Amino acid sequence: MPRKYKRKEGVQVQVCFWTTESLQAAFDEMDKKTMGINQISRQFRIPSRTLRR
């Protein structure tokens, strides 16, 4: 018998919090090749996996 899923209280759904402007700025920084992807992801608060894709 399947059970009904209940989300735990107090846990928030993670949504993307970066804008297209910050994403474009991160791509511009990647083109310069002065910083690595991990450092850029920390600076612009964008997941590094998103930048690698």
TrEMBL record:
It is found in: Nucleus. GO terms for cellular component: nucleus. InterPro entries: Homeodomain-like_sf. Its main location: nucleus. Gene3D superfamilies: Homeodomain-like. This is HTH psq-type domain-containing protein. It comes from Acanthoscelides obtectus (Bean weevil). The lineage of its organism: Eukaryota, Metazoa, Ecdysozoa, Arthropoda, Hexapoda.
